[in-house]
Amino acid sequence: MKKIMLFGRVAAGKTTLTQALRGEEIKYYKTQYVNYLDTVIDTPGEYTERRETSGALALYAYESDIVGLVLSANEPYSIFSPCLTSMVNREAIGIVTGIDKPDANVERVTNWLRLAGCKKIFPVSSITGEGIAELAAYLQDDTPPKKKNPIKTATKRTAKQKKTKEKQSASGELATWLL
């Protein structure tokens, strides 16, 4: 399964979603720290809401394959600015939680996530289980292995060429001296 980092404001449903994705019993608890699990990185909402801690999210994004922007279906406003995903060097998906709530406005929240730059959006309910299977299926690891870093490969190639040239020039000097 691809590793996903979930971030959103306090009470957006990140921890409940984490429990649902892992097949655990749903029970409320407040995330106090970055919870680094096998396939999910669950972050406290304060990290998204406070500028002082938002830098930690950028660091943890490097540890994930996918970044999940989480908004509750009954949010009064979006905390994600337009084109936010352009600053993330990972695939970013949108997740609308709490679609079973009576005051849910899935269409509005979906539009906010599209404005933030999410091309793929998953409406889910961790309580009823609706949409969880689709999200889990999307996170299944069916991607090809990562390509080699071209910069590192080029650096290794240049170093090998340099050593080969040094050996060749040393051999040429030896051959000249023998003649």
Short overview:
The protein is of the alpha/beta class.
What name is given to the CATH topology of the largest domain? Answer: Rossmann fold
Q: What's the name of the CATH homologous superfamily of the largest domain?
A: P-loop containing nucleotide triphosphate hydrolases
Question: Which CATH-level-2 architecture of the largest domain?
Answer: 3-Layer(aba) Sandwich
Give the uncertain stretches in residue-range form: none
Distance between the termini: 65 Å
Rg from C-alpha positions? 24 Å
User: What structural category do the secondary elements indicate?
Assistant: alpha/beta
Could you estimate the helical fraction of the residues in percent? Answer: 40-55%
> Strand order of the main beta sheet, please?
2-3-1-4-5-6
Described by strand count, sense and barrel closure, the largest sheet is: 6 strands, mixed
Please tell me what the overall shape is: globular
| Domain module count | 2
DSSP summary, beta strand count? 6
Mean pLDDT over the full residue set: 85
Describe this structure in words.
The chain folds into two domains: 4-139, P-loop containing nucleotide triphosphate hydrolases (Rossmann fold); 148-179. It is globular. The chain has helices at residues 14-21, 45-49, 51-61, 106-116, 132-139, 150-178, and strands at residues 4-7, 35-36, 40-42, 66-72, 91-97, 121-123. With 179 residues, the chain is of the alpha/beta class. Strand 5, helix 4 and strand 6 form a beta-alpha-beta unit. The protein has six helices and six strands; from the N terminus they run βαββααββαβαα. The longest helix is centred in the C-terminal third of the chain and has 29 residues, at 150-178. A six-stranded mixed sheet has the order 2-3-1-4-5-6, sandwiched between helices.
